[in-house]
């Protein structure tokens, strides 16, 4: 079956409310729902996170990143980590873990690893860009960066049920394909991704920002959350195995740095934030 036909089948499933998640993702979603309960006590949150190794590792690692840990005192326990980074960031990390678990026990482990590493880099860069250039909320930008590849994690999970959905030459399997006409591929991806974001109760502004990234339209100067994500996506050294429709590249942005960064050059901003980006990326990948 052609890839566009497979995407249409999956989009039809989505329209019928048939989102199919791996068991590991369902478990992570239950944790996320519990964390969002306003009546859930701090002690209950701590016990819940301690029982989930992937989430607890990320919570402690992010708390030790230079973005959050300004004192340099090493955080070694979940309680201290939560106190430092706050419940909002903990909930965002829980959502990111859900996304990471979507792929389940699939065969494309190297692709999934690259996809997550790319997401972590975009999240770290988006946090800096939001704070220094677009003046968006940095934590929201980081959260959106972590989950912006959500549709691809889901498609990778469903690939074993739809052979051919992701073929061997994965980096180029979705571009320059004569099967795709009138942006139907992108429309299907957005439909699938939007439905997953809604299933995870992702806030509307974050959803809109991620869709803007998928559509690939970057404004100059960049000011919105969508611009922030596109900016980060195009500058990250770790590229997604899937190609965005945007015609712009990191080189385009470097060439327009005076427009983008006003009085500060983009290279200076990135250099100044290099340790923050490295530290946060490593924390998210851990």
Q: What does the secondary structure layout of this molecule look like, with pairings?
A:
Elements: H1 3-15, H2 23-35, H3 42-50, H4 53-63, H5 78-101, H6 109-134, H7 138-147, H8 150-158, H9 184-199, H10 204-215, H11 225-235, H12 250-255, H13 257-261, H14 266-272, H15 274-285
Q: How would you describe this structure to a colleague?
A:
The chain is mainly α and 286 residues long. The chain has two domains: 3-17 and 108-285, Orthogonal Bundle (Hypothetical protein af1432), CATH 1.10.3210.10; 23-101, no CATH class. It is 64% helix and 0% strand. It has 15 helices and no strands. It has helices at residues 3-15, 23-35, 42-50, 53-63, 78-101, 109-134, 138-147, 150-158, 184-199, 204-215, 225-235, 250-255, 257-261, 266-272, 274-285. Helix 8 crosses helix 9. The model is unreliable at 168-182 (pLDDT under 50).
Cα-atom radius of gyration: 19 Å
Text of the CATH class of the largest domain: Mainly Alpha
Count all strands and give the number: 0
User: Per CATH, which architecture of the largest domain?
Assistant: Orthogonal Bundle
Number of helices: 15
Q: H/E order of the elements?
A: HHHHHHHHHHHHHHH
The assembly state of the depicted protein chains is single chain
Mean pLDDT over the residues: 81
Largest sheet composition: none
Alpha-carbon distance between the termini? 37 Å
What are the low-pLDDT stretches, counting only 5+ consecutive residues below 50? 168-182
CATH superfamily of the largest domain: Hypothetical protein af1432
CATH fold node name of the largest domain: Hypothetical protein af1432
Gross morphology: globular
How many domains in all? 2
> Beta-strand level of the residues, as a percent range?
under 5%
Structural class: mainly alpha
Helix % is 55-70%
């Amino acid at each position: 079956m052609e890839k566009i036909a497979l995407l249409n089948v999956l989009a039809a499933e989505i329209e019928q409310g048939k989102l199919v998640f791996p068991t590991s993702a369902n478990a992570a979603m239950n944790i996320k729902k519990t964390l969002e309960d306003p009546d859930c006590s701090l002690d209950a949150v701590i016990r819940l996170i301690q029982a989930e190794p992937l989430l607890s590792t990320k919570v402690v690692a992010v708390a030790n990143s230079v973005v959050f840990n300004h004192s340099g005192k090493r955080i070694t326990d979940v309680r201290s980590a939560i106190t430092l980074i706050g419940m909002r960031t903990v909930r965002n990390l829980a959502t990111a873990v859900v996304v990471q678990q979507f792929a389940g026990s699939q065969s494309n482990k190297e692709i999934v690893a690259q996809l997550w590493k790319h997401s972590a880099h975009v999240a770290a860069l988006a946090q800096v860009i939001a704070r220094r250039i677009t003046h968006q909320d940095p934590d929201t930008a980081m959260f959106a960066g972590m989950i912006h590849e959500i549709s691809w994690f889901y498609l990778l999970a469903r690939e074993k049920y739809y052979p051919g959905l992701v073929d061997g030459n994965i980096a180029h399997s979705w571009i320059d394909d004569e099967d795709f006409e009138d942006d139907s591929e992108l429309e299907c991806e957005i439909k699938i991704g939007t439905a997953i974001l809604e299933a995870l109760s992702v806030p509307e502004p974050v959803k809109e920002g991620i869709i803007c990234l998928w559509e690939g339209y970057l404004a100059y100067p960049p000011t919105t959350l969508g611009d922030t994500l596109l900016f980060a996506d195009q500058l990250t050294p770790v590229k997604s195995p899937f190609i965005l429709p945007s015609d712009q590249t990191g080189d385009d942005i470097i060439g327009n740095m005076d427009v983008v960064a006003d009085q500060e050059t983009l290279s200076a901003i990135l250099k100044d934030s290099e340790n923050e980006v490295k530290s946060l990326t490593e924390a998210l990948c851990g």
